[in-house]
Design goal:
Helix content is 28%, strand content 22%. By secondary structure, the chain is α/β, with parallel strands linked by helices. The strands form four sheets. Strands 6-5-9-10-11 form a five-stranded parallel β-sheet.
Amino acid sequence: MAAAPNRLDHGESIDSTSKTMAIEPPYGAANRTQMSLFQVDDQIRPQAVSPAHFIQPLDLNNDPKVGHQGAASGGTTAIVPIGDPLYVTPLDRLSEEPADIDCPFCVGGVGKCFLNQLNSLKHRYPQISLALIARSSKILFSEDFRPLSLSSWETDLAASTQPVLSLSDILSYLRNAPGPVVLVDNTSNQDVAEAYPMFLKQGISVVTPNKKACSSSYALWDDIFTAARGKGGGMVYHESSVGAGLPVISTLNDLVETGDEVHKIEGVFSGTMSFLFNSFAPLGGGGGKFSEEVIKAKDLGYTEPDPRDDLNGLDVARKLTILARIAGLKIESPTSFPVQSLIPKDLETVQSADEFLAKLPDYDSAMENTKREAEKQGKVVRYVGSIDVRTNDVKVGLETFDKAHPIAALKGSDNIISFYTKRYGANALIIQGAG
């Protein structure tokens, strides 16, 4: 979503168990090390934050391409060396948001949830050391790399008088860490995303839900993963940049890496759009007027503060850009293919969200006609994205579906992603759930 602060789509918790396995060190060490990969996911529901733990061991074999397989849903995926400390450095809302977006001098909602969850796991993973916390107006770091307190970080950050560091200064600081480092980017900041190659080249792994990193220019995408593939390069984990806690990226990566041919990817990629159209055009018919359903979705916390940041389709376009690239398409940017905006042309430039919502009922007739036409055919309308790998065709917009189709039968804010491949034939591999 172009103009809004980064957030996670609404989701349910996922839980799994931890394992430790021998893997090749990703930081260029000569000897094999016992390490465990775990990922921490949190999803934001209306009026509540529900953290969850999703732990997935992988035999990385020193192959940076597995960076697609890790996951972080507004939280972190951390590589935990057994016996050596791991230094975790969360960044939240660096330089992009004004300082008063959240509570004064504290990490934003996503970063706060991550740190609180990390605190709850400290006894299970004592090797993790929190080294630095940063946001646009405040920073807290340990000059001698002794662990920061996970229980008092909020008050410690508020009291900090340390000078705010630039990204280059943060890199210089982290290069001196006595152990492996994971940079956790909880922002939606373009400047931070463009700095990933700089960190990766120094062996610092990056974990992020920041969609801008992997969906901006293709040149940045190439720079990020070229740096990760380089000798001693860090690893990249961005599972939650598509589908929050759902295993979308890891599933697609497994298909590609094991030689399957991906023919098509199709689905509902936005919890906001899923909720909106399941209410506007339910299977049983009826539903409210489009403007009424948008207002309801906003009141329930399913949209951005300005719903236009959901209705413009850019959030879905970014997710499709990421998946298309993993599938092998060189998609230049989220604006390089057709994306249907649901914002009436006359309302694109109104000054405020309140003004937009006040005027939106005047444009209900167009959406109502779309819904009625679908109903006449025994279908429902949904907002979907699709990638046809064979024809290099990517698009986002309204489509109609038979009522028996899995996309039509979604409920609530669920996402659904269907993978059509050579192995699976006509029976798509489907991932569905809160995302």
